[in-house]
Amino acid sequence: MSLNNSSNVFLDSVPSNTNRFQVSVINENHESSAAADDNTDPPHYEETSFGDEAQKRLRISFRPGNQECYDNFLQSGETAKTDASFHAYDSHTNTYYLQTFGHNTMDAVPKIEYYRNTGSISGPKVNRPSLLEIHEQLAKNVAVTPSSADRVANGDGIPGDEQAENKEDDQAGVVKFGWVKGVLVRCMLNIWGVMLFIRLSWIVGEAGIGLGVIIIGLAVTVTGITGLSTSAIATNGCVRGGGAYYLISRSLGPEFGGSIGLIFAFANAVAVAMYVVGFAETVVDLLKESDSMMVDPTNDIRIIGSITVVILLGISVAGMEWEAKAQVILLVILLIAIANFFIGTVIPSNNEKKSRGFFNYQASIFAENFGPRFTKGEGFFSVFAIFFPAATGILAGANISGDLEDPQDAIPRGTMLAIFITTVAYLGVAICVGACVVRDATGNMNDTIISGMNCNGSAACGLGYDFSRCRHEPCQYGLMNNFQVMSMVSGFGPLITAGIFSATLSSALASLVSAPKVFQALCKDNIYKALQFFAKGYGKNNEPLRGYILTFLIAMAFILIAELNTIAPIISNFFLASYALINFSCFHASYAKSPGWRPAYGIYNMWVSLFGAVLCCAVMFVINWWAAVITYVIEFFLYVYVTCKKPDVNWGSSTQALSYVSALDNALELTTVEDHVKNFRPQCIVLTGGPMTRPALLDITHAFTKNSGLCICCEVFVGPRKLCVKEMNSGMAKKQAWLIKNKIKAFYAAVAADCFRDGVRSLLQASGLGRMKPNTLVIGYKKNWRKAPLTEIENYVGIIHDAFDFEIGVVIVRISQGFDISQVLQVQEELERLEQERLALEATIKDNECEEESGGIRGLFKKAGKLNITKTTPKKDGSINTSQSMHVGEFNQKLVEASTQFKKKQEKGTIDVWWLFDDGGLTLLIPYILTLRKKWKDCKLRIYVGGKINRIEEEKIVMASLLSKFRIKFADIHIIGDINIRPNKESWKVFEEMIEPYRLHESCKDLTTAEKLKRETPWKITDAELEAVKEKSYRQVRLNELLQEHSRAANLIVLSLPVARKGSISDLLYMAWLEILTKNLPPVLLVRGNHKNVLTFYS
């Protein structure tokens, strides 16, 4: 193929990223050509550059001697283009062409635009040249639209650039966060909850420093493993908004993601109420101390909580930027409060603090507090259950993944660093408070040791204080009794109160933002149709204002209840369920071994993730067993709901990958299993064409293959290869989707071939996989064989011969109306199109009427004119098409009814099996399988076999014995002894009239003429052939008589298919046999197995 470098030829495709590949620009005129001819040196191309300095800059390379041409080119008023001005397909300009790797090609270099999803917010998707465009011959004269070509050449962008520019404009005001403000700050604030200030000292008092560290370590093990799993999933591709829901749903699929997403969003909404109530309780305690109560403690909590959540809602609705600023301020307060505690531990204690149990760092106190001292009703797991919620909150950053600049970098870095920092803080506080404060103290400064008193051996006693009476009566101070230990130890007590406020408010604010974001992502995916209302976003940041309102209402409801002790364990278990599924997602994706699982964050292990998932489930029961049960029940219910609804999404989940791996492993394992007659099942190739065009043929085949055997709907495209392949590829997915939609358990396969027989031959040889290969060919009877071209008949009979050659059984199905309903489908499509046009027309007229009602008299005239136009032209066309369509529809009404006859439940009746020839048992097995189906269960088997007239009873007993050994139930057995007698004259006359147009009648002609006719029409039936197989012809006609006599009222007839010996029986004679054999009968299945046993009576 030669390339013509004129303006009418598509030339090189151009890489748009010049920092990766350099592009040579060559001036295309006579001077440059002459210069090129004079120059014998090879072209000097610049080396490929990967440097950033080449960004948005075009490097020009030219041959020696072309410098002047290039200068003239620039001086002519045209400037060199930057890489942004070239489209991937742009190689057409008036002045120059482009070269990639030094030669002309349409191949495009790798670009990120080719791999984006349609509608990606990060940039426009660009389609690379298709394989067809690269592979097919390049047209010599390709018409290029000047407007589009010039637009691209002039740097106006590519089709779709306007949308991309609009998206960029829309993104201009969007607030995006880095890993510090977006993830680290949020996670730290959420993990450092109120538990740090008012419960950690009590946990150390109960469990001791040793077990306390173990409790913190166990909790961090759960969150740390979950953090690693989250990091791995988040770095395995682009992460959008939705946080934990997005990560789980894209990994495990919509069933798991949809169930956990809803309860995770609800848990965050209720968590807002929990944190706000915690804040309100602290405020109420302060009001009590100052005797400033408003009503009573419960109502004061409700009032303060309601006001607080309204303020938090205002901050959230104001925008993510304001919310982020508030979080930073709260973090600063929290850090100051923690630092205040550590500073307080080294400030010398006074007598008041000593009486309350604080003695600064003392080795004796550390030793005494190192071991556990659980009070009545408490134990390791109960204390762990109280502490664990303090370690949660690691998903606070991931929950706003849609608002992060680079989620893949921010989530792993921010989450893991937050876990590390908060763990160090928890351990530091636990060890410090355990080394400074005794477990019990009276608070009485007079409880000092007097000389001569016996010391009870406690650390306090050694330090001059006697708190021994705390063993017999309750005390108010010490680690075990005082929740305000950190305030007492700190350098400035009110800062601890400020820290409590900061911890509660920041956690509430993070949950108030997380819940709507996760809920919005869930609603956008349309998994729950009823929740689509909440998918809408507002403003530059696509803020879920409707979700904010819903979260606010849920939080307000639980704040007004003001009793969260019951709901709190359930919420903790909801969060743990999310952690468990994230860990399981990481394990599942790794275990599935999908090539698409390539996380950039490599510090994870699939078995560690599985251990983390199991640990999360165990912790759920440790915290509260009944709450864990409720969580599992809710999640299971939602899982079943989403599974039943079957949302139309495809996210490439690991569940899909594992399904493939399991199927592949099972298929490979199946190849090691030898075939056995007991495990035989019909595995069928069905020549349906498009599966929707011959539904009856597919239905009867599906009836005996469903849940038991392989069924492949096959179509052969005959014609020019290029057109056939294009049509075939375009319809593959649609036709397989039709099978799935109609709940038909079958595959669709298609081939393009030069003739129909070649295509079927390819399918017979290549279809299937391993042991799952077809063993039976199912075809419809060729009803129009007498009018069909000879080649079609040759192909039809030829595929039967081919099937027998490949030792594949054959089933030919005949129904009175035929199978092909493609014309009916065309009529239905036409009617649907007309109906859509009618509705669109009515909508347009209605809109015009609404617009013109305010236009006065002038609008009235316009209205009349438009109505005349719209009502005349379409009405004429539509009426003609509709009448024609209705005519065709009425004509094919019987065909439509016949096409659905096997979908219906069959009436009570019989399936008559004419088992005339032993083919291995397939003729008997297929009807037996049919009787096992619900639609055919009311049909009984009647068996007809040939026999001798003088031994009818004996042969009947023999056949009954054989069927009983095969364990096949039957209603009756008929021995037909008169099969081989001649048919009556009328029947034989019908057969002779049928074959008359195809007979050669060479016996009536002289030898020369006869030989000439044989050469000219070798397909005709000769007298010699007819005489040689006359007895077989008699048998087919006689069998029809017997079928008319015995099986006319049967629901279905299954009959042994006669075999035409190759080279002996002409195609037309064989078709005449099939025609006369099945003429004027109920639905008939002509069956011939491959003469290998498919039935056995051995166990």
TrEMBL record:
TM annotation in the entry: 256-280, 301-320, 326-347, 379-398, 418-438, 545-564, 570-591, 603-627
MF GO annotations: sodium:potassium:chloride symporter activity
Catalysis performed (reactions): K(+)(out) + 2 chloride(out) + Na(+)(out) = K(+)(in) + 2 chloride(in) + Na(+)(in)
InterPro entries linked to this entry: AA-permease/SLC12A_dom, AA_permease_N, SLC12_C, Slc12a1, SLC12A1/SLC12A2, SLC12A_fam
Region (Disordered), start-end ranges: 31-53
Subcellular compartments: Cell membrane
Residue ranges constituting the Amino acid permease N-terminal domain according to the UniProt record: 90-157
Family named by the database record: Belongs to the SLC12A transporter family.
Protein name: Solute carrier family 12 member 1
Designated gene of the protein: SLC12A1
